[in-house]
Amino acid sequence: NARNGGKNSLNRLIRCVCGKKIGPDPRNFNQRVSLGRNDLLIRTFLSFGDVRRILAGKFLEQMIAKLPAGLRGADLLIETSFGELLQIIENDLELQHIVPINNRRKVIEHVLLYLHRQEILTLNHGMTVMRRAMTIEVNKDDKRKTFLKEDFLRLDEHYREKRIQVHVMREYAEQALENMAKALRLVLDYFTGSKQDFIKGYFTGREEVLKLATSEESWNSIIGMLNPTQKDIVADDDDLNRLILAGPGSGKTRVIVHRIAYLLRVRRIAASSIVALTFNRHAANEIRKRLLALVGADAYGVSVMTYHSMAMRLTGTRFERGFDVNSGSLDQVLRDAVELLEGKRNIEGEDDLREQLLRGYRYILVDEYQDINEMQYRLVSALAGRHAEEDGRLCIMAVGDDDQNIYAWRDTNNIYIERFREDYTALTSYLTENYRSSRNIIDSANQIISLNPGRMKAVNPVQINHARAALPYGGEWEVRDAQRQGQILRMQIDSVDAQQVNVQAQAAFSELSRLIALDNGGWNGCAIMARTHRYLVPVQALCEKYHIPYFMAADKDALPPITRQRSFVAVIDFLRKIDSASPSEVWERIAGCYLLKDAEWERFFRDAFEQLQGELGDSQLWGQAFIDWMYDYAHEIRQQPKSGLYLGTVHSAKGLEFRHVVLLDGGWNTDKENIEAERRLYYVGMTRAEQTLTLCELADGHSLSRSLKNNVAHDVFQGKSLPELEVSFQSLALQEINIGFAGRHSPDDRIHSHISKLQEGDVLTLKRDGAVYQILDNQGCVVGKTSSKFIPQIDFAHCEVAAILVRFAEDEGEEYRSGIKSARWEVVVPRGKGRKL
Predict the structure, then answer these.
(1) Rounded to 5 degrees, what are φ and ψ at 379?
(2) Crossing angle for the helix pair 82-90 and 48-64, nearest 10 degrees?
(3) What is the CATH number of the domain that holds 488?
(4) Coil, helix or strand for 275?
């Protein structure tokens, strides 16, 4: 009994140590503990993560050993075989014991895919290299040089029969759920009757379904809700290169998403063979989100990325924590990628770089083609293989609109979209049904843009979509708003020159407030846009005065970096502890431990993990892989969007849409040499609106709205300048802050606890201290200092926390490190409001 009692105690102790891992579970390589009758046998069995790491290390050792001694660099080509990797296991007694002989091939594949997904190595640029060997015998007596259509008939018949069998099995399953007797009758009819009689009996009126390589429900979800033009594009089985000229609100994102879905579900194209390029993360996120909703896990593996993301993938670039990322550094990565693809960068051991980097890609879809510049044009050309032989080309579909080319200052040019048909021998399709705006908004926007000569859609004007054609021109607002009746409003600002910008802000705010009251809505989904930022400042002051939630789309290079902000770093710290988990599992853990106290940051990371889940599915990643991806994501987002009234330039709002839009006057250049570009920009601003559009007109302004004559309401806003709107805002740049100040205090100094209690929006005070200013919290405690470069532009009547950043000792330059006493500290970034000095 004593012995049994001791054994039971030991049993309990082992169970405490092992937790849920007691018991045999060879599938997961879990620890196994055998508790015998009179003895105790403990056999340690490695976790699958341990086995994977051991094998990964040994595989990498074997591959690296194949490189010439001393060779360094990225994109080095190494050839190995399954036989060689299998030999590693068979030559190791421990691995022989751990990895069952009938499971070794799967384990090797899993480890290689794991290394590929962590981007430690690249498998043929995809996960398609795990193919079983095939022996091909050449018939020397056959004198034909090519295969004829007749040669494929037997194979075609085989796959047609396979498709029919799948649909029959589905029909059987559905009938079995309702009536098992009917299902058994179906089986009997299938095996005893003729094929024609069976189809007539069970698929009358649905014969076309039997030709599909997908279910009827899947087909309807992909094709059913599309208009005829969209269907032709999405269901193209001839793989024609195609240019789609798509007007605003015409469903171009839907076409891209449904085309990818068609390739995946109907054509059964591998997800790794498809890449979609977008201009920003917002567009990439939207495509990814819709694709997941449409085809679920089939979307995993499709590459949906920005130009810069593609360039970073091709060049193996990663932006680390301390790297200063700006538009210049991103453009350099783009140039490097183009040179790689064009063969202008020589890498030892690489004979065909483009083929090696792009092997597996077959379809490329490009969004907003009208906005590409020369470098992006060269990237797309190299990706698509424009100069390659026929077999080396990808099937390319580009979506764009020459009427929405608004980035001339970024060296974009309509010449590229105009040359597309010639470059790729492409068919042109027109998407001109607008699903977004009321007919009044569509017609007014058409009036503006039709004044530009040489347009590609001149004879294919945008029109309201067919399903809404019978609705009133002003939509539901024709009845809801007795004052405007759904018309475009030209709002004239009646004020003297010095006050009109101030009064215009009041007019915009007043009209939006009236509309929101009518639809019982909130400020989300509303926007006030301008040609330049300065006309938005008094609107921002109004929002502050009346405590209206707003989001100011600012100059992204002037913002505090997202990757340095407190909440972002907190999540990175959390990710460092991850051993192996899927994106959804990690997000559940983050959300469950209430790590993010701010709702906006919670939304930011929820969207990020949804995108990562869409890219990689339930792949198991380790912490550093999550961290690398998150840094790349944040560097491309650059500014964390927030809820509330949208304030921004028209350029910043490209690709967005809002219920109510007010377009401000001021700063529009109507000189002869600029008028066409300005019309395009104004057109983009107008077409962001879904339900109502208000166009402000200053007395001495140059608003293009003056050319609108039909179906337009007129109003005059009279008001006086409000002194409280005559303010400016100033956020301190990092060079204006003594970012090492708190770091020169010991970790137990009170300054760190004072800073830790601060949140964004908390009140601060700037107090002069010689040539610099102290930054004080609302208790008068010092939480930071400015640098000597800070020069106040305003009187800082109000000051608050704009952001709290995290800094590390290793971030400091060598000349400053000697004074640093903390390994890590926080930096308070102030933002002030006041009158100009």
Answers:
(1) -65, -50
(2) 120
(3) 3.40.50.300
(4) strand
Which pLDDT score is estimated for 505?
97
Cβ 551 vs Cβ 734: under 8 Å: no
Q: Is 138 within the bounds of a domain?
A: no
**SS3 (DSSP) at 765:** strand
Q: Are residues 315 and 418 in the same domain?
A: yes
Q: What is the CA radius of gyration of the chain?
A: 32
Least Cα distance to 321 among 756, 634, 732 occurs for 634
> pLDDT of 392-412, one tens digit each?
568 999 999 999 999 876 666
Number of domains in the chain: 6
Lowest-confidence segment of 31-40, 170-179, 759-768 by average pLDDT: 31-40
* pLDDT recorded at residue 42: 42
This prediction's pTM: 0.76
Residues 226-234: contacts with CB under 8 Å, at least 24 apart? 226/254, 226/255, 226/258, 227/251, 227/433, 227/465, 227/466, 229/429, 229/430, 229/431, 229/433, 230/254, 230/255, 230/258, 230/431, 232/429, 233/259, 233/397, 233/429, 234/258, 234/259, 234/262
| Per-residue tokens: 160 | 């047609």
384 and 352 in a common domain: yes
585 with 77: CB under 8 angstroms?
no
Q: Are 246 and 400 in contact (CB under 8 A)?
A: yes
Domain presence at residue 589: yes
Q: What angle do CA 714, 725, 543 make, to 5 degrees?
A: 80
- Residue 368 C-alpha from the chain's centroid: 15
Long-range CB pairs of 404-407, under 8 A, 24+ apart, other chains included: 404/248, 404/368, 404/370, 404/371, 404/654, 404/680, 404/683, 404/684, 405/370, 405/371, 405/680, 406/371, 406/650, 406/651, 406/654, 406/677, 406/680, 406/681, 406/684, 407/371, 407/373, 407/651
Encode pLDDT of 436-482 as tens digits.
Answer: 999 999 999 999 999 999 999 999 999 999 999 999 999 999 999 99
Query: Are 243 and 157 contained in the same domain?
Result: no
Backbone φ/ψ region at 239: left (φ over 0), alpha (ψ -120 to 50), beta: left
Residue 227: helix, strand or coil by DSSP? coil
**CB of 442 closer than 8 Å to CB of 688:** no
Token couple for 578: 């991850």
β pairing state of 427-431 and 242-246: parallel
Backbone region of residue 19 per phi and psi (left: phi > 0; alpha: psi in -120 to 50; beta: other values) = left
Q: Which of 85, 184, 183, 76 is nearest to 130 (CA)?
A: 85
Measured between alpha carbons, how far is 729 from 541 in angstroms, rounded to an integer? Answer: 9
166, 184, 211 - which closes a domain = 211
Residues 508 and 379 in one domain: no
Residues with Cβ within 8 Å of 346's Cβ and at least 6 positions away in sequence, in order, are none
Query: Which domain does 649 fall in, by range?
Result: 477-555+645-725
How many whole angstroms separate alpha carbon 79 and alpha carbon 67? 10
Whether 676 and 625 share a structural domain: no
Q: What is the DSSP string of 477-546?
A: HHHH-TTTTT-EEEEEEES-GGGHHHHHHHHHHHHHHHHHHHHT--STTEEEEESSGGGGHHHHHHHHHH
> Comparing 73 with 523, which gets the higher pLDDT?
523
Neighbours of 490 (CB within 10 A): 19
pLDDT band per the 50, 70, 90 thresholds, residue 34 = very low
pLDDT of the residue at 775: 98
Same domain membership, residue 164 and residue 61: no
**Looking at the chain, how many residues does it have?**
837
**Residue 675 sits in the same domain as residue 651:** yes
* 676 belongs to a structural domain: yes
d(CA 13, CA 214): 54
Instruction: Find the angle CA(572)-CA(116)-CA(274) to the nearest 5 degrees.
Output: 100
User: Is residue 768 domain-shared with residue 823, that is, in the same domain?
Assistant: yes
pLDDT band of residue 115 (cuts 50, 70, 90) is: confident
Q: How far apart are CA 469 and CA 467, in angstroms?
A: 6
The answer to whether 709 and 503 are in contact (CB under 8 A) is no
Residue 185 to residue 219: CA distance in whole angstroms: 27
Contact criterion met (CB below 8 Å) for 281 and 635 = no
